[in-house]
Amino acid sequence: MNGVNDDIVLQVEDLTVYYELEEETVKAVNHISFSLKRGETIGLVGETGAGKTTTALALLRLVPDPPGVIKSGKITVCGNDMLSLPVQKLESIRGKDISMIFQDPMTSLNPVFKVVDQIAESLEIHEKLSKTEAHEKALDMLETVGISRSRGGEYPHQFSGGMKQRVGIAIALACSPQLLIADEPTTALDVTIQAQVLDLIKDLKDKNGTSVIMITHDLGIVAEICDQVAVMYAGHIVEHGSLDEVFNHTLHPYTEGLFNSLPNINDRKSELKPIPGLMPDPTNLPEGCAFAPRCEYATEACKTTQPELRTVGGTHKVACLRYDETDFHINRGKKHG
Amino acid sequence: MKRFLSLVLCLLMFAGMLAGCSSNTDTDPSTDDGTTTTTPDNENNSTGDETTPSGEENYKKDIIFGLGGKIVALDPQANSNTQHNYYFRMVFDTPLDFNNETQELEPNIVTEWSTEDAVTYSFTLRDDVYFHNGEQLTADDVKFSYDRAPDTDSASTLGDLIKETRVIDDFHFEIELHSANVDLPYLLTLPTASIINREAVTENELEGTGIGSGPWMVDSYEFGDYMKLVRNDNFWGEKAKAETFTLRYMPETSARLISLETGEIDICADPDPLDLERVRGTDGLELQSYVGTSITYFAMNYKKEPFNDQNLRLAMAYGINAQELIDVVRLGEAQPCLSLWGWNQYGYNGGTTPYEYDPEKAKEYLAAAGYSESNPFSFKLSVSAGERKSCGELIQAQLKEIGVNVEIVEFDTAGLSTSTTNGEHEACLYGCGMNIFGDDSRRLICPGTGVNKSHYDNPEVNELMDLAVAELDDTKRTEYYHEVQQILHDDGAYVPLYFANGFFAVKEGTGGIDYYPTSHHDMSNVYIIEQ
Amino acid sequence: MYRYVLKRLVLLIPVLLGVSFLVYFILDLAPGDAVDVLAPDDATQEDRERMREELGLNRPLVIRYLDYMSDLVRGDMGESYLSGQPVWDSFIEKAPNTLLLGFASLVVSVGLSLPLGIYSANRHGTWKDNVSMVLALLGLSIPNFWLGLLLMLLFALRLGWLPSGGADGFASLILPAITIGTGMMATLTRTTRSSMLDVIRQDYLRTARAKGVSERVVIRKHALKNALIPIITIIGTQLGGILGGAVLTESVFSWPGVGRLIVDSLNSRDTPMVTGAIIMTTMFFSVVLLLVDLLYAFVDPRIKAQYATKKGGKSNDNKQKQKASA
Amino acid sequence: MTTSKSKKQAPDTAPVKKQRGQWAEVWHRLKKNKGAMVGLTIVVILIFIALFSDVFLDYDTDVIGVNTAERLQPPSAKHIMGTDEYGRDIFCRILYGTKYSLSVGVVAVIIALLIGVTLGAVAGYAGGPTEEVIMRFTDIFSSVPNMLMALVVVAALGQSMFNLMLAIGITSVPQFVRITRAAVLTVKTQEYVEAARAIGLRNYRIIFSHILPNCLSPIIVQTTLRVASAIISASSLSFLGLGIPAPDPEWGAMLSAGRRFIRDYSYMTLFPGLAIMITVLALNLVGDGLRDALDPRLKD
């Protein structure tokens, strides 16, 4: 798995990120590992506070320090070890090989610069284009994300949320990066706009063969766009596998809980089964498995030992002690499409 | 903790820097024995240690004169304070002149003058005097000047004396007064008697009044900042030795002296007494001084409570220690003052007994007025900022020792002048420059003018003054004035404090300044020999 | 945009009238009048009455004020009681000096505050942050006339590098400008620091970094332009302080400016000159404040849009938007 | 991703963070700011000196007692800060002067506070024509630079301690009006104000008991900073000869009187200058500290 394979775009090994504040330390990301091939899309799923965005930021080494500290781990993007790169090299990779779309379009665009200039900036840096060439290409990018060229000269506050996110996408994909991180790109948008933005990402992904990390808490989006799925809980990956493995052969009780808390269109009368309790306090993670306090299958062992991710079949991995017992299975509710 | 240390460190460093750069290296303060009572040795009332010019020297072309007052008007009849008089003396001619050495009147643009009855005077003008705009100065200009005088701001006192100015011909005129006044010739030496150009003024009131006939011409000016004069090459008398002369307004005294030391100005008027020692000690600089006749006096409002009581006035007279004021406020640079007469004023009685500082005697007068420890006497003393305020503070402390509480009320110049003229004050500290003619003291001791800050009105004194001004016989006239001074002393109308010495700090090789005790110095012939 | 500018200028008229009324009446409360300053000591009571009549000071206050205002409306600011020179000429003579001094001190103040503010924002929480804030505060805590004297002693007298006074040439501008400038540093540095701290936290900087923009450019281009907005507002409010500082500094450094003109005229009860000069300075400041607002709109497109779309009336909403964090 | 510091949901395992009152929270944050602490200690010491200076200093002898024999002596064991031109001990005068300088600053600001806050609150709350009138008046006052307005007021009313305070107070009113109005405008739209109005409270009760308590933080910050600048203004006015009449030892007056002696006896200006600098610096530090502590956004 760890051999350098030319079609492996991203390799993350044992990544751990803490936020060290004055009185306490927030353990945001704990020893996660995964990898991504060219053109492949992985979905990072989890509730708010599971450490999804911190992971994404760590990939670009954008975690604000202080207070953020990358405790351990190795990140290789297109063959570059991100954590040890000198700053100039790092800057030449950001936006060129790996780029990111941010969650809140309202604040992620600079309010005092024209939209077209914000797109043209990365072109000037990476593609070494002249001002006018970059300006032209930026207007092209605007068109590809569905905004008319004439609006290039306007400012972010003149755009709606959806339009701003399209600009965000145009910025990210200006230099056609090999890896795109989309941090909950549609959460801040209403449903109709969500579909358009997702379609846009899908088209651009297929056209340029970009690998995408889709960060979301919306299982519907994962189903629609992702090849692989990694379910995160309290900074750990608790289940990881192909779309079919995770959706149709759910192993980890938390993932099952996520599916159960979704309303089922076909069976309106069925009762919702939300997961009891709340996410653990990241400054005070419980001893053993973080999910133990809320897990109906939890045993005494679960409360003391930290489960490891182990392969159960094919590419399907799960971090749950109960699977040591050969015949263990969770009772699975009716799945939906 | 580290941040706390950084804060303290930064403060100490800054304080150290401030102390360092402001403590001086010239004279180490600790050696300076508090009271510098240096009697002004040779600098007494001579016209400064004048270095007389010998033959063709290279004179400095442009002279810059820094002074503490600002010039705001061109018209010699519109203003009369010191800073304006410097400029008037240089740009205008007065009929007569007064020689400070010989204490005699001298001809100026008037060559001869005579009178039989001190009512009508006849004068003869020089025929080679020209204004700066080329027109010749004739008797018409003189008549125009003195007809205009009554309704101007500063020349009105002169104007009110004159009944009529009659032109005999171009170079002869007569002046008839309302009543006999022996002092008229002296009055015609003052800047307010300057002759202005009739045509120029009638044509343009504002600019025209700047045309004089003196050795210097007005070149350019910005009121409240500077006035630049340039040499008048076809002046009838001795030509000026420098080419330009700029009077520059520099209000901050210490800054003015610093500009002299850095060479930005050549002459600094009225340096702070504190800095005199430094100027004397700095090579390249000279100190020129004169004993002024401007009296600083303590006036008590004669007309209303509490100072209508003579005992209280005399208690003040003996309770104030004038010598301490001289030592502390003037740092010794002043002369004791006996009465309200200038020491060079006609009729000055050197023999008047001064008020010796005698706290016991003062207490007796206080008791006589019905005040004592249990019922202390207190009053308000009105002062203006600067030297007079310092005197006020000292007097407050001195009178405290004899059980009198003084409350100091501070005014700016305009406020003080109004309240004391209207008699709203109980007591005040004021000053007045005494001219050379005998009747000048009238404005201090007789009713009717703004300077009589005591509102003193003693019929006996008024009568004596009227007699004196009309008296042609010198001995009798002097007697009258001596009698007046004795009455004033016995009645305790005023407590005269001191004559302040005046100083100019100048670049070495400066000369030609004709110092007048009344501070109307004539700088027409000023020069600086380049070292 | 033009409607807004017009509205602000029209609004200026009542303010100027108010100011002239305020100054004229307060000044009349002062004991004594111009004649007490003008008249020589030996002037008799009749002379004083005559002079009062000449200057019209014997008329009741209200009539004098109305007379003054009727001339003012026709653009004639009257003559100074002291010199008889029209107020307008004296003001115009002095105004460039104070303008020059004001601009120079603004340059000093901004030149020192911006780097110090950014420096301390970048090192937020460290001792360096504290020291730079204390340095900025020192400027405000020292009475500027004392600072002026000390600077003069050190640089003009002891070192002889700079002239100690007067208004001839660039060199004589440096010390007075530093004296006034340091006084304004505190508020400006603090605002720069807090607005930089706000901006550094913003998401769009992270977007810029994600684009591969170097840290230096992120701060200098992206952050600074956004941080400038509250800074410009503060510079607007600081301008009042310039003239305040000028009043003192001009007398220490014999700088023939409007500040000193007003103080001197005040001492000699020269009401037309004081009122005229204050009206002119007030008008000047209001215009400059308006320019600052426009500059504000120029830098922040959100405001510019607001002017264009909204009818003029909404101007105080926009004021609300400018955080009054003076 | 919000670091959840607010609510604890597993009460049994995690130690409960004590819920501090709003002011205790502010004090906690203020304590962390070293600069503010230094400032606060200095201010407390000054207030102590101001209150008790009469106890250990006799006004007549120590403060204004003239003895010319000991004139102009540099700092020595006998006179720690030397003596002035009348032989008065400068150290005693500075200690005693604390009362004058601080009271000028505090009273002036109280005047400004009372007028400014009420006007600002009324303007902010009432809106419409009243707001327009009040704001126009504020513009008139604030368009004339502070120093000039103070000059004119003192020149007009004559020089006394109270007139000085009044002049400086009046000139600081515009800042308070603007700050209060801005705060009231933001608070006015909150629901609890609607609720207060709904239950029929009279306007002035709403303003003073509901709205103003919530606008305190900008006002408090402005107050501390204004006290600092008031002391500076007092010293500037003394420089122009319009300060507190002699012989009261207000620092500004001492500094301005000492400027004549700045070259030979620099200590006479150094100590009053330092006194003003340290006091104003301390007040500014406290003001800054309060600003950060009260400003919800600037969490460290």
Describe the structure.
The complex is a heterotetramer of chains A (337), B (531), C (326) and D (300). With 337 residues, chain A is of the alpha/beta class. Chain A contains 11 helices and 12 strands. Helices cover 30% and strands 23% of the residues of chain A. In chain A, strands 6-7-8-3-9-10-12-11 form an 8-stranded mixed β-sheet, with helices on both faces. In chain B, 30% of the residues lie in helices and 23% in strands. Chain B has 17 helices and 19 strands. Chain B is globular. Chain C has 326 residues and is an all-alpha fold. Chain C folds into 2 domains: 2-73, no CATH class; 87-295, MetI-like fold, CATH 1.10.3720.10. Helix content of chain C is 78%, strand content 0%. Chain C has helices spanning 2-29, 34-38, 45-55, 61-73, 87-122, 127-141, 144-158, 171-200, 203-210, 215-252, 258-267, 271-299, 301-309, 315-321. Mean pLDDT of chain C is 82; it is low at 310-326. Chain D is elongated and about 75 Å long. The model of chain D is unreliable at 1-16 (pLDDT under 50). Chains in contact: A-C, A-D, B-C, B-D, C-D. Chains B and C meet through helix 1, helix 4, helix 8 and helix 14 of B and helix 2, helix 3, helix 5, helix 6 and helix 7 of C.
Topology:
The complex is a heterotetramer of chains A (337), B (531), C (326) and D (300).
Chain A lengths: L7 E13 L4 E13 L3 E5 L6 H8 L8 E10 L2 E2 L5 H7 L4 E4 L3 H4 L6 H12 L4 H14 L16 H13 L5 E5 L7 H18 L2 E6 L2 H7 L2 E6 L2 E7 H6 L4 H8 L39 H5 L5 E4 L2 E3 L19
Parallel strand pairs in A: 3-8, 3-9, 6-7, 7-8
Antiparallel strand pairs in A: 1-2, 1-4, 4-5, 9-10, 10-12, 11-12
Helix pairs in contact in A: 4-5, 4-6, 5-6, 6-7
Chain B lengths: L1 H21 L39 E6 L14 H10 L4 E4 L4 E4 L2 E6 L4 E6 L13 H10 L7 H6 E8 L2 E6 L6 H4 L10 H6 L1 H4 L7 E7 L3 E6 L12 E6 L3 H9 L5 E3 L6 H6 L3 E16 L9 H10 L2 H7 L5 E3 L22 H10 L9 E7 L2 H15 L3 E7 L1 H9 L5 E7 L8 H4 L13 H12 L3 H18 L2 E14 L2 E2 L15 E2 L3
Parallel strand pairs in B: 1-10, 1-11, 14-15, 14-16
Antiparallel strand pairs in B: 2-3, 4-5, 5-7, 6-7, 8-9, 9-10, 11-17, 12-16, 12-17, 13-17, 18-19
Chain C lengths: L1 H28 L4 H5 L6 H11 L5 H13 L13 H36 L4 H15 L2 H15 L12 H30 L2 H8 L4 H38 L5 H10 L3 H29 L1 H9 L5 H7 L5
Features:
heterotetramer, C: about 325 residues, mainly alpha, MetI-like fold, 2 domains, 14 helices, disordered C terminus, D: about 300 residues, elongated, disordered N terminus
Task: Extract low-pLDDT stretches of chain B.
Answer: 13-50
As a whole number of angstroms, the C-alpha radius of gyration of chain D is 23 Å
CATH topology of chain D: MetI-like fold
CATH architecture of chain D: Orthogonal Bundle
Q: Care to count the β-strands of chain B?
A: 19
- Per the principal axes of the C-alpha atoms, what is the gross shape of chain D? elongated
